[in-house]
Specification:
This protein is α+β, with helices and mostly antiparallel strands and 421 residues long. The chain contains nine helices and 14 strands. The chain has two domains: 242 residues, DD-peptidase/beta-lactamase superfamily (Beta-lactamase), CATH 3.40.710.10; 131 residues, D-tyrosyl-trna(Tyr) Deacylase, Chain: A. Strand 13 and strand 14 form a beta hairpin.
Length: 421
């Protein structure tokens, strides 16, 4: 249970003095402990936030929590335990689950296996969320050096790491092809088409043809677990994927990592299996997941629900309680920095004008946007240099203002925490 303000406890100390021929008990008068005082900077912050929340760009459906990271003291809050649409603040949760179930140095392997039938190989997707055309061409070059150029080559595929692609629960029809693609273990980074697997396979086959091998596409099959690859590539790590997911709010990366958490924790790599894995792991980390719903890993789902207090507690865990384990989240090029990079860069008009511009470079936070939702959750230091974690979740944002105005209003609230405004 979290309480704001001060608290008081008393104790009575009793000592006994034992003398020859008898015993005399002396009771020390009760003494009040030093009462922890709320820093003046926090009192000022709370007052300012209360006033600045009354903003037409924010509206009436706001939940927020500001917490002192060291003491876990709630500095200010409103509707902190209300389940809200988190939008891409869900990626904070995905990153936390990923880094607590997989080593940041773990790599994703895309491989080609020989078949018993001459003139056939199997291209196996390994769930690399950052796989590029250049990577696939490099793999094709390796294969070309190992096969007979004088006979045609058929490329079969193994896509069994994940189940057959389907839309996520709560995804709207306009998401594909636009901001996310069907989840596949073999796709090219940045491809939001309806069939990213086809594009990846065709890229590989086209390169083999260019290298002088008559190549065509075959069938789908399952490679035996003990098979030895003919050639493989492992160009990206878990840390690389977490960096990109947080910095650029990359939805495809988030959804692939969502499935990897399921696999790492021995759950089915289905939507339901991944959601169950995510909640189970959060509980194992000691976090209270009551009233939450995790339908996907990106936050696109209209079925997702998080609370501001939960996000604040997660941020406290990763920044303060166990910072080494989750350090990838706060490395350069990971969680966006206010007015500097990622989805908080100046290009997007974040922290570029008063009143929030004074906080440029001082806030690390994850943004979130759906058509009716604007969110921002992260960390910063207050005027006294104390680390604060915060979460601002706006649902049903006012439609009479453009989304940027709501984002900038929330930026102002985060700047208030720093004490610069």
């Amino acid at each position: 249970m979290y309480e704001s303000g001060t608290w008081l406890s008393t104790r009575v100390l009793t000592t006994a003095a034992v003398f020859a021929l008898g015993a005399v008990f002396t009771t020390v008068p009760a003494q009040a402990e030093d009462t922890p005082s709320v820093p003046s900077s926090e009192m000022s912050m709370g007052t300012k936030l209360t006033t600045r929340l009354k903003n037409k760009a924010i509206g009436n459906d706001l939940a927020y929590v500001v917490m002192d990271a060291l003491s876990q003291r709630i500095v200010a809050s409103k509707n902190g335990d209300k389940p809200m649409l988190p939008a891409s603040n869900m990626k904070i949760i995905t990153a936390t689950n990923v880094l607590s179930t997989m080593a940041p140095t773990k790599t994703f392997t895309t491989a080609v296996f020989p078949e018993s039938t001459s003139g056939r190989v199997v291209l196996q997707g390994g769930g690399d969320p950052l796989l590029t055309k250049r990577n696939l061409k490099a793999l094709a070059t390796k294969v070309a050096a190992l096969v007979d150029h004088s006979q045609p080559l058929i490329v079969d595929t193994d896509l069994n790491m994940f189940p057959e692609p389907t839309n996520g629960p709560g995804w709207t029809k306009r998401y594909i092809p636009s901001v996310v693609s069907p989840v596949t273990p073999l796709g090219i980074y940045g491809d939001y088409s309806r069939n990213p697997t086809d594009y990846a396979i065709n890229t590989f086959i086209t390169e083999l043809n260019r290298l002088g091998i008559q190549t065509s596409r075959g069938i789908e099959l399952d490679v035996a677990a003990d098979s030895i690859p003919l050639a493989s590539i492992s160009p990206h790590t878990v840390a690389d994927a977490v960096h990109i997911m947080l910095l650029d709010s990359e939805n495809n990366v988030a959804e692939i990592l969502f499935r990897h958490v399921a696999i790492a924790t021995l759950h089915p790599a289905t939507w339901q299996g991944a959601a169950e894995a995510a909640l189970a792991n959060l509980n194992a980390l000691g976090l209270n997941t009551a009233n939450l719903r995790l339908a996907d890993g990106s936050g696109l789902s209209r079925a997702d629900r998080l609370t501001a207090i939960f996000l604040a507690n997660v941020l406290r865990l990763v920044s303060t309680t166990d910072p080494t384990r989750f350090s990838v989240m706060f490395e350069p090029g990971s969680m966006p920095t206010s007015g500097v990079d990622g989805t908080l860069k100046a290009k997007f008009h974040r922290y570029t004008s008063a009143p929030s511009s004074c906080a440029k470079g001082n806030i690390r936070a994850k943004t979130g946007t759906l058509h009716d939702t604007i969110t921002l959750s992260g960390t910063t230091h207050d005027a006294d240099g104390q680390l604060k974690v915060f979460s601002f979740l706006v649902n049903n944002r006012p439609t009479q203002v453009i989304p940027l105005r709501t984002r900038q209003a929330i930026d102002g609230l985060a700047a208030t925490i720093t004490g610069c405004w």
